[in-house]
Amino acid sequence: MLVATASQTIGPYWHLIEDVTWADLTRFGAKGNRIVLTGTVTDGAGTPVTDAAIEIWQTSPAASDIFPAFGRCRTDGTGSFRFTTLKPGPGNAPQAPHVAISIFARGLLKALMTRLYFQDEPLNETDPVLSMIEDAARRRTLIAQKVSAAAWHLDIRLQGENETVFMDI
Amino acid sequence: MPTETAPFRPIEAGSQPANDTPSYGSTHLRHPTRLALRIPQTVTETTGPRFTPARFSSTPDLSMTNGKQALGERIIVRGRVADEDNRPVPHTMIEIWQANAAGRYDHPDDRHDAPVDPHFRGGGRVFSDADGWYQFVTIKPGAYPWHNHRNAWRPNHIHYSLFGTGFGQRIITQMYFPGDPLLALDPIYHSVPGQAARERLIAAFDIDITAPDWALGYRFDFILRGRNATPTEQG
Q1: Quick one: average pLDDT of B18-43?
Q2: Most distant pair of Cα atoms in chain B: their distance
């Protein structure tokens, strides 16, 4: 059996492959429940992480010719990212609606994997991944807060107080 | 035979770096301190995005910009994308980025006092073919200083990003060059604990890839995580 290639950091210059349109998953004309996902990334000192690549992948709605179901966005000078996508729906059941997140950055030798869930989804109570996290405060690090009718916000903390729950898959 | 939604096998011990790697200064405030939560792989983890050259154009020659040759040593990089069971990974996208021959990135944050080359941008992408083979042409990147420690220099390297067939296979890595004296001193290279795993990040000079009277050739294979034989539970 072969062994998978080792990961190395994305470094500070990954923007050479950046296409800023990738942050809009509806850019090919996908129709549906269009939402905005915003967030920030901060380090163990609370300093914004300004050179990260945030990637999202969702299986609901399913990927199609007009919906890549995948997006990438840089964190900007304030450590913020912003995606436009379609809201995950019942296609995730019995899991609660969610979006997978990968974080790459200088100082991260391999991706940090996590998930974004949505505030006020009844299935959050029984979601098999959320249910593995006993501490309610830790669980909350994965739940994006609704900031307007079609916008949710999640703060991601790489280290320290309120550190985001990262996943080993 | 693993199906395309079978879960990925666990990571081989020693084959991947830890995010807590003290010799690499940027890790200090960025590595999580809590143990990662091991979750069952669902369809979210076992499937992933698909990219096609029709929508994401292939750029297999980084050595030319607007019909003009970049400065430096032209090289050909060729290899195969396969999984841990040696099954080829066909039609998969490989993103590529690197410094120019002088060790300078065409990036506003790179302040190294080395020239930018107007004919070298340093970003591109290619796709593996039906048997998992890929190839591109570029300029051998130069070494450059960074401020990790006194007199710190990154070895020559090319960055890669691959998606494979599932989000759990996603990998970003760097390819190094054989015989580079800076490898022995580089904390990023040495973040990979296992010597064999580390050395697999070094390309091999290959006379059969070398094009006569034109460019040296290097071989570099990507191995993505293998899948279990049994499919994952749905949901």
Answers
A1: 97
A2: 56
d(CA B93, CA B132): 10
Q: What is the mean pLDDT of chain B?
A: 95
Beta bridge partners of B163: none
Q: Which amino acid is it at B4?
A: E
Q: Could you give the CA distance from residue B184 to residue B189 in angstroms, rounded to a whole number?
A: 8
Q: Pick from A7, A22, A66 the residue to mutate for testing the B interface (most B CBs within 10 Å).
A: A7
Q: What pLDDT band is residue B231 in, cutting at 50, 70 and 90?
A: low
B124 within 8 A of B136, measured Cβ to Cβ: yes
Q: Does domain B25-224 have CATH number 3.40.109.10?
A: no
Q: Report the C-alpha gap between B190 and B184 in whole angstroms.
A: 8
Q: Is B196 exposed, middle or buried (0-12, 13-18, 19+ CB in 10 A)?
A: exposed
- Residue B191: exposure state from Cβ atoms within 10 A (0-12, 13-18, ≥19): buried
**In chain A, where the domains are located:** 14-157
Of A69, A98, A107, which has the smallest distance from its Cβ to B27's Cβ?
A: A107
| Dist CA B148 CA B26 (whole Å) | 8
Query: What ipTM was assigned to the predicted interfaces of this complex?
Result: 0.97
For the domain covering A14-157, report its CATH number.
2.60.130.10
Helices H, strands E: what count in chain B? 2, 14
Confidence class for position A26, pLDDT limits 50, 70, 90:
very high
B154 is catalytic: yes
